Design the sequence.
């Protein structure tokens, strides 16, 4: 079996596992449910997700350590990830093949020529890493002194220096000039750190997930593909899944896929920041694709199926080569090989990056975060409509970690967890928040699935005990997502004298966080004109027949004497039938009132956990009469409502 | 494409000149790859976090304000009857044995003023700038290395410090004005307290400080009855502190637990006797001709209450603080040094 | 360009084989991983609607139970021994110690009035004895029994049923006649799904209690931590009037005579450790020990596989009298 066939097997193998993991991310213990499937594995193998979240948050959470393996293999082998493992890459590979399979060899070669725009992905990478890592400089100024921490930071420094040296060497060919530029930049930054307090201005924001292929494809499959397919099949979910603003996710996903018809692997070549990172990491790769001899027949079929557009025929672009191995297969005289020495025809390590572009993208990344926060959405102008899932970190730490991968929204059993739209700012785009109107219920009292699945602990892996404030967490109390507020202008018993107690009944907290205040309201007044046992004829009260038979309606004397009040069994337009019993017996000619007993809901903010079940169940189905907003959420002590 | 446009950067040599060069290149690459692997491994090892952040770990480490009181000076008090603030301060300090008995050479002093509102000094809603200027000068001449003036006002800090004259007075006297910045706030917890738990306080200006003086006017306060030296510390609280108004008397007592000052100076030369704490009209003020200096903030407030025509019993926070052992509500028991600068018969106070 | 490709080198074939092998290993690794997990870490998985894990049509299948004239208020909820306390909090211990297996609850309301609702709790206690235990311990005095063909009684707003291993509580939000009729309709419908056990009267142990002076309604099975002694479990107890004085007779069948004897000893030691004083004397049943503790008398003995005795007797005479009678019953009905 040739190496290309093996590659195809590998692509299908990993792609199938990827789809399977998306498919099984439903709570449950059947083999087709979550069980112990490593559903985050692809995200964890993604070194961009790991590096960016590490830069932003300062730690490498649990399974994200898998990325070290990817880095190590890439450093030795080159960008194997793109053509052998990446599920998004496999999609592009297939579509690119589909788009070009009928073209002539010449046309195929043209499609696979290197293009200057391949540099764009490096700029994107640098910008995204700068946005995530700017605060790291601030942290480095006050090095944490624990042994592990220090070692980690020093090696981070080493890695960054190595990457910087690499970049700088390309950009400033003269070593002395490069050194001077590097030192000057470092001094400037350190000086800025010491002199001012950049922590107040510079923030860390993990935005790599917008373009990082693994979160992108994970999010797209989770939130677009599966719900769309299942809407027809109805196998995965009882009720159709909805995700707000999914059109934008679909647009990005669809555009990325369709662009293969313009240029094969368009996304991989021009946009993918992960590819750029792997290209840099694979700079020193010990094995690499290349030509055995400087001279060859020049027939160029090696370029017909070149996935990376790395020009194996001329000077191989090492950072662009995705190890598809097609050139080994298509070369007619065995010139192309995967070997330890550089291509005999010569190599170009990186696409042509401009000094100005690099600086611009780094600066843009650093400046982007404070610029995005100018609106104060992370600060004083925080959105009360942004209800984060239980265990979510405080907003600033949250955006340092959230990959926007959609795993939490996929696993959420009620579909209440939703991708946040653009209205909360670009930083919050596609991060999880609760929308109580979508889904089958609010946040379930006995579920901590989102925190357990979150690959970066943006939602902490809380236990049920912590969520419910039991055991060791009894003092802290249950985790609150926000507080429900009754909109008295919309609530049936408050605004319209209609009995309703749905929210109180559905409140899952014990003791209930919704209490009701009993109130009797006069609906109609009239005079008793006739009487037959317990049926009274009334004059002056126009009643809707049958309306008063629910047990909430009473008749009472005009004096409003509560003790005399009698429950109405049923009614006609001008008569009521009373339930037997009671001290008062209305006499003919007596003026009486029809009253309704209302149980008006009120929130006890010390008990409300903001789960949103009440909002979900509220019969005022448009804008609900009881709504949760983020005040009093546990994750932000500054937003507390009570002493 | 590159057919038309030559590479801007020269490619690596097309053909190794000699076999040895190829080997050297390989070794160099092996070193680079090895370093990358090592760096990634070290990074992973060093910053590996198997559990994720915990609820406890997320909370910022709390800070604690120090105890700035001087044990040997406990329970000291001077009461000056005067119509002018500056001479009153001088006389009062002298009666306490001079500021030198509180401030020593090299001390870094923090003066907590009341700059709560952006109102002019003549409305008496804020610390009087002349008095402040004199105190700063006295501190500096007592040997203080640095005198910091701070408050976290209710209105916009910049306009507060400017319009109250406090900013200018501080600078003129050689003090350092520290307006509250976001980074100055750190959570603190008052031991034995119920309200100030994990709550942000204006900690930044306290860093490195060795002595703390509270300087504020006597004011009527709609919610608490009176705003005096203990209530003055309210300006150290950050966050959405107005929720404490739900339990004002407890919070004031807890504030007295939070701050153990070296000295408090309560300006009742003119008091705001109505419509406090903002006032708004000179009609709200009354010449009460008294300046109180004390190391016991409870006693100072107890005496201050009388200037507003109240007794300490009218102000629950005084009792609250006294029961907590923070001072004495019976100011006379401290045997205060009483000084009068008023002409006989021209007494402004009864 | 078929036919023009260079032949595959052995190195290529070898690498291909190694990679394929690696894929197999990865696949096996994933399969291994998926089998090792802790379902509790995600909380209690919400069972997918409609996919009831309980046998359809059985006593626990409240989803399948259709009752005329009642409207269900939401789907049934299910609890297991781990989650029982989510529903009934601290009371869970009582059920767990009596062999609790499962609880299914569901709310219903009268179609005309959503305010008139009740909730039904069906406890599966595993064995008849377990159901009897939770039923008897919680028996309310004021109830009047219902003629439903099972042990059932109504007490104000609540209805209680015991049948076989099942114990049922129906707790209503009011006590209107309509609501009570609805509760009884539900009870009839439920009983129709639940086969009556061979013997309805209760465990044989109950027949061993001497009938004179016994308050039959007080008979109960105490499952654990009996009389405050954590070693004492599965004890039947009944209240007696002995010559106008209160005393509780108890007995418990153990695995064999030796265990019964050991437990009797343990219980006496427990009483002595709790401040009791041993009061030997005349007229004790063979092997019995008398302990005076907090102004009451405890008599403890074993007879064959039975541990038995008198608890909380007001006088020594009452304890002796009742103890002698229990002993006689046990020797007469020696298993």
Sequence:
């Amino acid at each position: 079996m040739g190496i290309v066939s093996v590659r195809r097997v590998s692509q299908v193998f990993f792609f199938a596992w990827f789809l399977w993991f998306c498919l099984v991310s439903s709570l449950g213990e059947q083999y087709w449910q979550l069980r112990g499937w490593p559903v985050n594995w692809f995200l964890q193998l993604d070194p961009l997700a790991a590096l960016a979240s590490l830069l932003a948050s300062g730690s490498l959470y649990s399974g994200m350590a898998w990325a070290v393996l990817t880095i190590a293999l890439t450093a030795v082998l080159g960008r194997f990830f793109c053509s052998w493992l990446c599920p998004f890459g496999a999609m592009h590979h297939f579509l690119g093949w589909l788009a070009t399979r009928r073209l002539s060899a010449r046309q195929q070669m043209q499609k696979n020529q290197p293009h200057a725009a391949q540099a764009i992905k490096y700029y994107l990478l640098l910008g995204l890493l700068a946005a995530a890592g700017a605060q790291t400089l601030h942290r480095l100024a006050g090095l944490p002194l624990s042994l592990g921490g220090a070692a980690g930071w020093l090696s981070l420094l080493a890695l960054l220096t190595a990457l910087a040296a690499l970049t700088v060497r390309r950009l400033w060919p003269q070593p002395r000039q490069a050194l001077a530029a590097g030192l000057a930049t470092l001094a400037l930054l350190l000086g800025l750190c010491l002199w001012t307090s950049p922590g107040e201005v510079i923030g860390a924001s993990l935005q790599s997930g917008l373009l990082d292929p693994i979160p992108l494809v994970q999010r797209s499959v989770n939130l677009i593909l599966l719900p769309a397919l299942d809407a027809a099949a109805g196998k995965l979910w009882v009720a159709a899944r909805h995700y707000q603003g999914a059109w934008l996710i679909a647009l990005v996903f669809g555009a990325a896929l369709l662009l293969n018809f313009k240029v094969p692997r368009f996304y991989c070549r021009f946009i993918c920041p992960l590819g750029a990172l792997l290209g840099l990491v694979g700079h020193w790769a010990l094995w690499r694709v290349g030509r055995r001899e400087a001279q060859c027949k020049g027939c160029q079929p090696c370029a017909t199926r070149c996935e990376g557009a790395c020009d194996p025929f001329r000077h191989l672009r090492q950072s662009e080569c995705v190890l598809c191995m097609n050139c080994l297969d298509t070369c007619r005289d065995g010139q192309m090989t995967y070997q330890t020495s550089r291509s005999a025809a010569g190599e170009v390590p990186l696409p042509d990056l401009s000094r100005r572009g690099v600086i611009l993208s780094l600066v843009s990344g650093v400046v982007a975060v404070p610029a995005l926060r100018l609106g104060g959405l992370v600060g004083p102008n925080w959105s009360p409509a942004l209800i984060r899932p239980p265990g979510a970190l405080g907003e600033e730490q949250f955006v340092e970690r959230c990959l926007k991968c959609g795993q939490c929204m996929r696993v959420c059993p009620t579909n209440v967890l939703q991708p946040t739209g653009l209205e909360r700012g670009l930083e919050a785009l596609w991060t999880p928040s609760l929308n109580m109107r979508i889904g089958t219920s609010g946040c379930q009292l006995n579920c901590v699935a989102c925190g357990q699945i979150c690959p970066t602990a943006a939602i902490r892996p809380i236990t049920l005990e912590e969520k419910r404030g039991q055991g060791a967490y009894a003092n802290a109390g249950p985790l609150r997502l926000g507080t429900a507020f009754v909109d008295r202008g919309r609530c049936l018993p408050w605004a319209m004298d209609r009995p309703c107690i749905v929210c109180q009944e559905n409140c899952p907290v014990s003791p209930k966080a919704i209490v009701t205040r009993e109130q009797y309201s006069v609906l109609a007044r009239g005079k008793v004109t006739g009487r037959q046992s317990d049926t009274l004829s009334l004059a002056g009260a126009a009643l809707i027949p049958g309306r008063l038979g629910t047990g909430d309606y009473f008749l009472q004397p005009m004096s409003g004497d509560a003790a005399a009040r009698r429950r109405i069994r049923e009614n006609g337009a001008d008569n009521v039938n009373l339930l037997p019993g009671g001290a008062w017996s209305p006499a003919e000619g007596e003026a009486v009132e029809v009253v309704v007993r209302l149980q008006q809901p009120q929130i006890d903010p010390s008990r409300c956990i903001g789960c949103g079940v009440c909002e979900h169940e509220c019969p005022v189905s448009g804008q609900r009469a009881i709504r949760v907003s983020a005040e009093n959420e546990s994750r932000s002590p500054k937003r507390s409502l009570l002493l | 494409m590159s057919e038309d446009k030559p590479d801007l950067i020269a490619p690596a040599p097309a053909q190794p000149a000699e076999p040895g060069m190829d080997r050297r290149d390989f070794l160099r690459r092996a070193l680079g790859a090895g370093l990358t692997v090592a760096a990634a491994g070290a990074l992973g090892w060093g910053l590996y976090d198997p559990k994720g952040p915990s609820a406890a770990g997320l909370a910022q480490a709390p800070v604690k304000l120090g105890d700035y009181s001087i044990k040997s000076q406990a329970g000291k008090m001077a009461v000056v009857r005067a119509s002018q603030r500056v001479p009153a301060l001088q006389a009062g300090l002298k009666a306490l044995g001079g500021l030198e008995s509180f401030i020593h050479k090299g001390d870094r002093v923090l003066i907590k003023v009341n700059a709560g509102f952006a109102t002019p000094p003549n409305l008496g809603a804020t610390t009087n700038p002349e008095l402040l200027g004199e105190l700063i000068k006295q501190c500096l001449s007592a040997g203080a290395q640095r005198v910091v003036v701070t408050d976290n006002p209710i209105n916009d800090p910049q306009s507060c410090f400017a319009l109250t004259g406090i900013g200018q007075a501080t600078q003129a006297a050689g003090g350092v004005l520290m307006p509250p910045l976001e980074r100055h706030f750190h959570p603190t917890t008052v031991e034995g307290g119920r309200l100030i738990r994990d709550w942000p306080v204006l900690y930044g200006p306290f860093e490195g400080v060795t002595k703390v003086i509270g300087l504020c006017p006597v004011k009527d306060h709609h919610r608490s009855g009176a705003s005096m030296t203990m209530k003055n510390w309210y300006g150290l609280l950050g966050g959405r502190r107005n929720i404490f108004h739900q339990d004002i008397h407890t919070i004031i007592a807890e504030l007295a637990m939070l701050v153990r000052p070296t000295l408090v100076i309560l300006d009742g030369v003119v008091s705001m006797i109505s419509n406090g704490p903002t006032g708004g009209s000179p009609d709200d003020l009354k010449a009460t001709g008294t300046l109180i200096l004390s190391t016991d903030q409870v006693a100072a407030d107890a005496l201050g209450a009388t200037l507003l025509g109240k007794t300490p019993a009218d102000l629950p926070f005084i009792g609250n603080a006294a029961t907590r052992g923070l001072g004495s509500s019976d100011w006379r028991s401290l045997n205060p040094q009483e000084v009068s600068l008023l002409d006989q018969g021209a007494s402004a106070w009864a | 360009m078929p036919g023009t490709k260079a032949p595959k080198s052995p190195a290529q074939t070898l690498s291909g084989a190694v990679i394929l092998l690696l894929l197999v290993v990865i696949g096996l690794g994933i399969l291994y991983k998926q089998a090792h997990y802790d379902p509790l870490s995600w909380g209690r998985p919400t069972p997918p609607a409609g996919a009831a894990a309980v046998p359809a049509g059985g006593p626990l299948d409240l989803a399948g139970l259709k009752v005329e004239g009642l409207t269900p208020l939401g789907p049934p909820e299910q609890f297991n021994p781990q989650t029982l306390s989510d529903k009934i909090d601290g009371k869970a211990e009582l059920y767990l110690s009596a062999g609790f297996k499962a609880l299914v609850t569901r709310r219903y309301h009268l179609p005309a009035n959503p305010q008139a609702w009740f909730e039904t709790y069906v406890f599966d206690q595993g064995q008849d004895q377990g159901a009897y235990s939770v039923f008897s311990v919680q028996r309310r005095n004021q109830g009047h029994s219902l003629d439903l063909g099972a042990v059932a009684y109504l007490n104000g707003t609540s209805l209680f049923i015991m049948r076989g291993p099942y114990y049922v509580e129906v707790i209503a939000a009011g006590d209107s006649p309509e609501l009570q009729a609805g509760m009884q309709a539900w009870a009839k419908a439920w009983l129709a799904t639940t086969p009556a056990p061979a013997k309805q009267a209760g465990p044989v142990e109950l027949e061993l209690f001497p009938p004179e002076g016994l308050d039959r309604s007080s008979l109960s099975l105490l499952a654990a931590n009996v009389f405050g002694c954590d070693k004492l479990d599965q004890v039947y107890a009944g209240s007696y009037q002995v010559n106008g004085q209160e005393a509780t007779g108890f007995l418990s069948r153990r695995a064999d005579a030796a265990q019964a004897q050991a437990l009797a000893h343990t219980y006496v030691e427990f009483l002595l450790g709790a401040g009791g004083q041993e009061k030997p004397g005349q007229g004790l049943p063979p092997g019995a020990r008398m302990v005076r503790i907090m102004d009451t008398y405890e008599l403890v003995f074993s007879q064959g596989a039975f541990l038995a005795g008198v608890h909380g007797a007001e006088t020594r005479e009452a304890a002796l009298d009742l103890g002698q009678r229990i002993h006689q019953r046990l020797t007469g009905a020696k298993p």
Observations:
- The first helix of chain B runs from residue 19 to 46.
- Chain B touches chain A through 56 residues (CB under 8 Å).
- Chain B has one domain: 66-340.
